[in-house]
């Protein structure tokens, strides 16, 4: 069987992680099948992984193997061109099954197709898109993907429920197959590596960590407000934000100023994978008050590192964290602050949740996810 995967987003964090980890596991577990990934090829050989992707988060691209091929496709995202070019390639390459790892599902596919819809954020928060045309495109494409694909995959029950509610999807055609946890975050980190990262970023004080981009639904204003409530009682505590940076968001800097925490909040931007893992280990507590997630990789990575988690009890996050972290109402600043305070004051609880989190994280396995996705490929191909 020849499986063709649209891998043009392999350099992204969420969807890119899905493409890389799921693709590697599927190809390894099913060596008699051929896997063709469509994307930006950065090296001369089509049997090499894209050169630009190998720099993502400092990791080496895992999508290589005797049954793995990369075919170039540089069509831009979110336009008519991608819908036509991908479909044409699938026809030329004589695919048996096509997998769209996000909601853009091509026209006139010549074979059965599977689509993964990770979240419905564009439907829940349309104002976050750059313009009304982008919002309309997202609505049309999500509805079309759900209607046209032979099978719809989601990574959480929350997204499945959203699709049923927001686009009238048939729940019997939707299969929930969660992300796995990257084994890298489960590995032991030596003290020297931790010291080097701490010194590089000047982390001399205890700190809370949040790994997030700077978008409204990530709820950073309330996180900053909660940290402001804690400042008086924890003079040496800092808040570190890895991902987006605050310097281009004056409204967030204004919150920091009004709460008196401008000198205690630092944003370190997007970090290489090894530094991110070290930050998880160094942090006293990981805080993730997002209003909406289709899954929630950062809290899973934090749990894998044994870091106690405070997260919101909204959307898919409880499916990831379970009872291995403190879940709070993300709309209540005082609730976020009190959950953090309870962990700061109770080292036994911190240790217990850290240990439980590591156990919980091991339950999310990419090989298990890949086996279930391979079963879906075979089912739609045989139908």
Keywords:
six-stranded parallel β-sheet, 42% helix, globular, alpha/beta, 14 helices, Rossmann fold, 15% strand, 13 strands, 2 domains, seven-stranded parallel β-sheet, 383 residues
- Give the low-pLDDT segments: 42-60
Write the element-wise H/E pattern from the N-terminal end onward: EHEEHEEHHEHEHEHEHEHEHEHEHHH
CATH architecture of the largest domain: 3-Layer(aba) Sandwich
Shape: globular
Please, what is the average pLDDT? Answer: 91
**Proportion of helical residues:** 40-55%
The Rg value, from CA coordinates, equals 21 Å
Domain count: the total is 2
Protein structure class: alpha/beta
Oligomer: single chain
Distance between the termini: 14 Å
Topology:
Elements (H helix, E strand, L loop, with lengths): L1 E5 L7 H16 L4 E6 L28 E5 L7 H13 L4 E4 L12 E4 L4 H4 L7 H17 L2 E4 L2 H11 L6 E3 L14 H10 L6 E6 L7 H12 L6 E6 L6 H10 L5 E5 L3 H10 L2 E4 L8 H8 L4 E4 L4 H5 L4 E3 L4 H13 L1 H16 L3 H17 L1
Parallel strand pairs: 1-2, 1-4, 2-3, 4-5, 5-6, 6-7, 8-9, 8-11, 9-10, 11-12, 12-13
Helix pairs in contact: 1-14, 6-9, 7-8, 7-12, 10-13
How would you sum up this structure, described in words?
Residues 42-60 have low confidence and may be disordered. The chain has helices spanning 14-29, 80-92, 121-124, 132-148, 157-167, 191-200, 220-231, 250-259, 273-282, 297-304, 317-321, 333-345, 347-362, 366-382, and strands at residues 2-6, 34-39, 68-72, 97-100, 113-116, 151-154, 174-176, 207-212, 238-243, 265-269, 285-288, 309-312, 326-328. It is of the alpha/beta class and 383 residues long. The chain has 2 domains: 2-180 and 365-378, Rossmann fold (3-Layer(aba) Sandwich), CATH 3.40.50.2000; 183-362, Rossmann fold (3-Layer(aba) Sandwich). A 7-stranded parallel sheet has the order 3-2-1-4-5-6-7, sandwiched between helices. It contains 14 helices and 13 strands.
